[in-house]
Automatic annotation (TrEMBL):
Domain of life: Bacteria
SUPFAM superfamilies per record: Homeodomain-like, Regulatory protein AraC
Domain HTH araC/xylS-type, first and last residues per copy: 189-287
Keywords noted in UniProt: DNA-binding, Transcription, Transcription regulation
Gene3D superfamilies listed in its UniProt record: Homeodomain-like (1.10.10.60), Regulatory protein AraC (2.60.120.280)
Species annotation: Cohnella hashimotonis
Entry protein name: AraC family transcriptional regulator
Taxonomic path: Bacteria, Bacillati, Bacillota, Bacilli, Bacillales
């Protein structure tokens, strides 16, 4: 773990905002929480340099230009762009040029923040993405600033909701997969429909790709991008969902359930089910029967 280090040139205007928050024990254990949040109008000599800080940072450029150095790469920052970084790693960001760099920013943390960061990094080739002026990110950061000007009973809870919106927006934008089912290509939607309706059949990636007249590689890549799983993993998920329904509501043997969901080998079915639920089919059935 690197030693903590911070060096800041506080060259921002008098009407800039920086608010520091101290999270409660509940927030630290259960929520996403704000550590600092602000709105800077940074002058030409502004910069921040740090390392070894247990925090994640999201910065959105409203106007002007900046530059980010992070993980041995340098990135230009312009209006409508946002970056998302882990402050344990060295970073340096600064105003570029003689003008004012207007930025909205949040230092945040929480028990699952790293998972969001890893999801973002898994999709994005760089920590900087174009969010656009119509993104929810700047509005949510402004709401967070307003919430932290006056702390009241639900500040942390409402902040967690806003932070979830921002983190979700970043991951969705990084994935490039659009924000509704309408953005999913027709051949991917058709493959989903085929799996949903024909999960009992012996479906293979080759079969699904041939039916859509695309290569196995292109189908796998697009399916993972837009659905979040590969086609065969999605098929297994659909089969497990139907298996759960049978286990909960039908008094049929496990071997018959395996056949009904398209898996010929009962032992293989049991292993798949346990891998994905942590329980054997019989243990799952017993658990749910006891709750009824």
């Amino acid at each position: 773990m690197p030693a903590s280090y911070v060096n800041v040139s506080p060259a921002w205007s008098a009407d800039s905002v920086r608010l520091i928050a101290t999270p409660s024990e509940l927030a630290k254990s259960a929520f996403y929480f704000v550590q600092e949040v602000g709105h800077f109008y940074a002058n030409a000599s502004y910069f921040t340099e740090r390392e070894g800080i247990d925090s994640y940072l999201i910065v959105y450029t409203v106007s002007g230009s900046g530059r980010l150095a992070y993980r041995n790469q340098s990135y230009a920052l312009t209006s409508g762009q946002a970056f998302f970084i882990d402050c344990m790693d060295y970073q340096h960001y600064s105003t570029i040029g003689d003008g004012t760099w207007e930025l909205l920013w949040i230092h945040l943390n929480g028990s699952q923040t790293r998972r969001y960061y890893e999801a973002f990094s898994g999709y994005a080739s760089a920590p900087v993405i174009t969010a656009g002026s119509d993104s929810i990110i700047p509005g949510r950061i402004r709401e967070l600033i307003d919430l932290h000007r006056f702390h009241f009973a639900h500040t942390e809870l409402l902040s967690a909701r806003l932070l979830t919106d921002v983190l979700t927006e970043l991951v969705v934008l990084a994935s490039g997969s659009g924000q509704s089912p309408r953005d999913v290509p027709a051949y991917v939607r058709q493959t989903v429909q085929a799996i949903d309706s024909r999960y009992r059949e012996r479906l293979t990636l080759e079969t699904l790709a041939n039916e859509r007249s695309v290569s196995k590689f292109n189908l796998s890549r697009a399916f993972k991008r837009y659905i979040g799983l590969g086609p065969i993993e999605y098929l297994i998920q659909v089969r497990m969902n139907h298996a759960k329904e049978y286990l909960k509501y039908a008094d049929v043997p496990v071997g018959e359930i395996a056949e009904r969901v398209g898996i010929d080998n009962a032992s293989h079915f049991i292993n798949l089910f346990k891998e994905r639920t942590g329980l054997t089919p019989l243990a799952y059935r017993k658990q749910w029967k006891s709750r009824r």
